Amino acid sequence: MKPIMLIDGYVDHDETMILPFEILNPYVIEVFLDDLEQTPVENVYVQGNRLYFRKFYEIYKYPTKVWIRYITKDF
């Protein structure tokens, strides 16, 4: 497996996103918008394979695409 994986997807209307695997350590992911500046997304919480975006659609319009950078092993 590569040391860094990039995953893209849309945040659901209930401000969640389901990943195809569980994340055991929430400090190994970075979430950012699919824009030219790669704007970081704040207030993202991890529980298993689900990401929760707190008050995401109060700031952004539905649907919004995000990228997740996932570090799969220590460097």
Mean pLDDT: 88
State the end-to-end CA separation.
Answer: 13 Å
Q: Give me the count of strands.
A: 6
Uncertain regions spanning at least 5 consecutive residues: none
Strand content: 35-45%
Helix and strand sequence = EEEEEE
Specify the biggest β-sheet: 3 strands, antiparallel
Whole-angstrom Rg? 12 Å
Cα shape: globular
With strands numbered from the N-terminus, the spatial order across the biggest sheet is: 1-6-3
Class from secondary-structure proportions? mainly beta
Count of DSSP H/I helices? 0
Provide the helix percentage.
under 10%
Question: What is the strand and helix layout of this fold?
Answer:
Elements: E1 4-10, E2 16-18, E3 29-33, E4 44-47, E5 50-53, E6 65-71
Antiparallel strand pairs: 1-6, 2-5, 3-6, 4-5
Structural features, described:
The two termini are 13 Å apart. This protein has 75 residues and is an all-beta fold. The chain is built from no helices and six strands. Strands 1-6-3 form a three-stranded antiparallel β-sheet, with no helix packed on it. It has a three-stranded antiparallel β-sheet with strand order 2-5-4, with no helix packed on it. The chain has strands spanning 4-10, 16-18, 29-33, 44-47, 50-53, 65-71. The model has no long low-confidence stretch (mean pLDDT 88).
